[in-house]
Design brief:
The complex is a heterodimer of chains A (318) and B (495).
Chain A lengths: L6 E8 L10 H9 L1 E7 L8 H12 L3 H8 L3 H4 L6 H4 L5 E4 L3 H9 L3 E3 L1 H4 L12 H11 L2 E2 L2 E2 L7 E7 L8 H22 L5 H5 E7 L8 H4 L11 H4 L9 E2 L2 E2 L4 E11 L14 H7 L3 E4 L3 H8 L9
Parallel strand pairs in A: 1-7, 1-8, 2-12, 3-4, 3-7
Antiparallel strand pairs in A: 2-11, 5-6, 8-11, 9-10
Helix pairs in contact in A: 2-3, 8-9
Chain B lengths: L8 E9 L15 H4 L3 H9 L1 E6 L9 H8 L4 H4 L4 H7 L9 E11 L4 E4 L9 H9 L11 E6 L4 E7 L17 E2 L10 H22 L2 H8 L7 E9 L6 H5 L3 E4 L3 H9 L3 E2 L13 H13 L8 E2 L7 E2 L8 E6 L1 H7 L3 H26 L4 E9 L15 E7 H8 L2 H4 L25 H5 L24 E3 L3 H10 L3
Parallel strand pairs in B: 1-13, 1-14, 2-16, 9-10, 9-13
Antiparallel strand pairs in B: 2-15, 3-4, 3-6, 3-8, 4-7, 5-6, 11-12, 14-15
Helix pairs in contact in B: 2-14, 5-10, 11-13, 12-13
The chains are: A alpha/beta (318), B alpha/beta (495).
Chain lengths: 318, 495
């Protein structure tokens, strides 16, 4: 409902963008109903460990990159309780982070997220994704936001639930297969949520849904295949003279000095009567590039957009 | 002998549609109001020119009109913005110098015994009595602070503008408004540790007390009391702002600017940047406005000296107007408020219809400018955008980016079908449409066939003016601070 504060679920498929295929119908359905685009990231530091990458990219997505750097450098402000929490920054926002990654769990806790593993969410000892009933997980996630039995409860524990899945959670199986399984899991879980949050239903009117899929570890070849740089129009060099600095390359009035112009995160967002509907039909880099309505924004502004829809970010000015 | 100058003067008509952007509405078949509306002229600007998506201040930031306008006009609000008070007061006609502070103020009712604000609005219909009470307060003195001058001017309904002029004032203080009825009147407080802020808070608290003394003893209040009405014995002082010190628009951009903006906060912002505010009779800044009057005023200002330039507004002067620049202006800013009002009022059908009315007025503007361009003295450019989105089902400003378009007038004329077509556009003034209760647009919403029948003519491949099509434009997605650069670069391009 546009004139009530929303509650938000964010599915973050870490390193799963390469594994989306036509069979992931719920992802494509979301893209075809919502508004899609790219979230740009900074470059990775040299020789970064995978576990560090996982935490760093989530930190960017939560606009907490500085807190991450403080952690890496083991600064005093990180060790003490001087880290500004998500609640301090966004008007008392109550947020949960669901992840099976222990480093991320620690980091999220420091930022003021209440952290869970998926099995903790529904009180089972099975810590594998496949062991959990999707319907039960979907209902459990919505319950955290105060949606129960298709209704909105008066009280809720959280305003935002951020679900981190992927980055090879099941390293005991072949890695690519694990990623593919995780992608299918997000697709199926999204399907479960969409089933409950039907357009126009009580839940559908209040639930703001984001799916973010990242590329994880990037390769040299990705620079040309997955570039977000707008190609210069050789036929009309006049027009290229007009090309302004892009929003994703700026921080306030200042240029960002570290932008990776390829392998952005892919994002699709939808809420009935609250988001725009663009012309993208599938959840894919190519479709978002050609038809996405959001183009590219810096990943660290993502949470500000979501917070605004939760009425947890103020208007600037009159 | 041909007396025409070799190089026609390049001038820009810039149309700012307040609250332009929106989201996809189920009631409009999941189109935005811009997509649903029939906008032949706006679509022609998009087809004839360059397009992009603009974040008025920054990605993900829901902004007010004041911060957004500053950003678009090239003034970083994070550096220059000091609250809305000064803009409101200057727009209401109070002269301000840099360093003066101003408040957006309400006549209210105070229970003097308890200090509780009984009603934050003494009376919504205060058009007759408000100016009388303002006159009683204007030029009042403060016993403990005689060095300060106080100016008060009536605005609208229960509102007035209050300006305090004098040394060492700070805009960084809280106001006296408790924000809800039946709460205690607040004391102004310093919002930082500076001596100026603490001193200003003391000045403002005395101002509040002295205003109440004058109002309590005013015969008009005795009359209201006898009639059983709320007395206006308090002026709530809120939204303190200091007049910003900035380089003028002309100095910053090298373009002589003028503006049509009956909305006070926008006019005040323009005045702060030394932009001349044109007189446009019949332009009211609300649903009663006559858009033709705005288009005519901008067209005249951009085609002077061919046509006499409209008069310009002088805040604080005995005579409220002075002649406009005889040789006219290079940058004509036409502000349209009604679309934002429709968003705030949650009137989705009216928002669509208001956009169609704006489109019609843009047609009139184009015709008037084309007549001037035919003389060979001028080359015009049309630019259209918004200052923020006001999603109509949300009812307030939001962060979604807005479309931006700019084209040469000559290309626009080609796009609409040539000179014979544009010269047939009626210049008759027209009111904004009225909407019947329960009216919807099911049959009027623009069809896919209509949308697909258009073609881009020059610039990029975009041929519609809306939030979704703009994402395909050659300008990409850019912050508002880049906008003036695009406009100035457009002026420099060879035909």
């Amino acid at each position: 409902m546009a004139d009530r504060a929303s509650k938000a679920v964010v599915f973050y498929g870490d390193g799963l963008a390469r594994f989306i295929d036509p069979s992931h119908t719920h992802l494509h359905s979301l893209a075809s109903h919502g508004c899609s685009g790219f979230l740009s990231l900074p470059n990775a530091p040299p020789s970064e460990r995978e576990d560090d990458r996982i935490v760093r990219e989530v930190a960017v997505l939560l606009d907490s990159h500085q807190a991450y750097l403080n952690k890496i450098e083991e600064l005093e402000c990180w060790k003490t309780s001087l880290v500004q929490t998500i609640s301090d920054r966004f008007m008392g926002m109550r947020a949960a982070l669901i992840t099976n990654n222990s480093s991320l769990k620690l980091f999220g806790g420091k930022l003021g997220f209440t952290t869970f593993q998926l099995n903790e969410l529904i009180e089972t000892s099975d810590d594998t994704l496949s062991g959990l009933s999707l319907d039960v997980v979907a209902s459990g996630l919505l319950k955290l936001l105060g949606f129960e039995g298709g209704k909105i409860m008066e009280a809720s524990r959280f305003d935002l639930v951020f679900v981190h899945i992927g980055a090879g959670e099941k390293m005991n199986v072949e890695k690519d297969k694990a990623f593919a399984n995780d992608t299918e899991y997000i697709n199926a879980l999204l399907g479960g949520i969409l089933q409950i949050a039907q357009p126009g239903s009580e839940v559908g009117l209040r639930l703001h849904l984001s799916v973010v899929m990242s590329y994880g570890y990037v390769m040299e070849a990705d620079q040309s295949n997955l570039s977000i740089l707008i190609p210069k129009d050789d036929k009309n060099s006049n027009l290229s003279k007009l090309f302004p600095r892009q929003s994703y390359t700026m921080e306030g009035e200042n240029p960002r000095n570290d932008v990776r112009h390829y392998c952005p995160m892919l994002i699709s967002q939808w809420q009935y009567a609250v988001t725009r509907k663009d012309m993208a039909e599938t959840f894919s880099f190519k479709d978002f590039e050609k038809w996405g309505g959001n183009l590219v924004i810096p990943a660290d502004r993502f949470l500000h957009e979501v917070a605004f829809k939760l009425w947890k970010a103020p208007k600037y000015g009159a | 002998m041909d007396t025409r100058p070799r190089q026609p003067k390049k001038r820009v008509a810039f149309v700012l549609i307040d609250g332009l952007g929106d989201v996809s509405l189920p009631k409009l078949g999941f189109k935005t109001p811009l997509q649903a509306a029939n906008l032949p002229n706006l679509d022609s600007i998009a087809s004839a020119g360059v397009n992009g998506l603009m974040d008025p201040v920054e990605v993900g930031l829901g902004c007010g009109s004041d911060t957004a306008h500053l950003s678009l006009l090239g003034y970083d609000p994070r550096v220059y913005y000091r609250g809305r008070g000064a803009f409101e007061s200057m727009g209401a006609g109070l002269a301000m110098s840099p360093g003066d502070i101003a408040f957006k103020s309400n006549f209210a009712t105070l229970d003097e015994k308890t200090g509780v604000v009984i009603s934050r609005r003494a009376d919504r219909h205060f058009e007759d009595e408000g100016p009388v009470l303002c006159a009683a307060l204007d030029k009042m003195t403060l016993p403990s602070f005689p060095q300060y001058e106080v100016r008060v001017r009536y605005a609208t309904e229960h509102r007035c503008g209050v300006v305090v002029k004098g040394p060492k004032l700070s805009g960084n203080i809280s106001g006296t408004d408790p924000l809800k009825d039946h709460r205690l009147l607040l004391q102004a407080q310093a919002l930082d540790d500076t001596d100026e802020a603490k001193h200003t808070a003391a000045v403002v608290n005395e101002l509040s007390r002295e205003m109440s003394k004058i109002l309590v003893s005013h015969p008009l209040n005795a009359k209201r009391e006898a009639e059983g009405k709320n007395i206006a014995n308090l002026v709530l002082l809120r939204g303190c702002g200091i007049r910003i010190e900035v380089p003028s628009f002309e100095k910053k951009h090298g373009l002589l600017p003028c503006m049509v903006a009956p909305t006070k906060i926008i006019a005040g912002l323009g005045l702060s940047l030394d932009i001349d505010i044109l007189e446009a009779p019949g332009a009211t800044g609300d649903y009663r406005t006559i858009l033709t009057s705005k288009a005519t005023a901008i067209a005249k200002a951009l085609s002077a000296p061919l046509h006499p330039c409209p008069s310009v507004f002088v805040p604080g002067g005995e005579d409220k107007h002075k002649p406009g620049r005889p040789d006219g202006y290079d940058f004509g800013f036409l502000h349209i408020k009604a679309v934002d009002d429709a968003g705030h009022d949650k009137e989705s059908v009216f928002k669509v219809k208001a956009l169609e009315a704006v489109d019609r007025a843009i047609g009139q503007l184009a015709r008037l400018l084309w007549q001037a361009e035919l003389t060979g003295n001028f080359q015009y450019f049309l630019s259209v955008t918004g200052d923020h989105s006001t999603p109509v089902e949300y009812g307030d400003h939001s962060f979604e980016p807005v479309p931006f378009s700019m084209c040469r007038l000559a290309d626009f004329v080609h796009m609409v079908g040539g000179e014979s077509v544009i010269m047939k556009i009626s210049l008759d003034p027209f009111p904004l449409p009225t909407i019947k209760a329960g009216e919807d647009l099911t049959e009027d919403v623009k069809s896919e066939t209509e949308r697909n029948s258009k073609q881009a003519f020059s610039g990029d491949s975009v041929c519609e003016f809306n939030e979704i099509a703009a994402a395909r434009g050659c300008l990409g997605r850019f912050p508002g601070g880049e906008m003036m650069g695009i406009i100035k670069n457009c002026l420099k391009l060879n035909a």
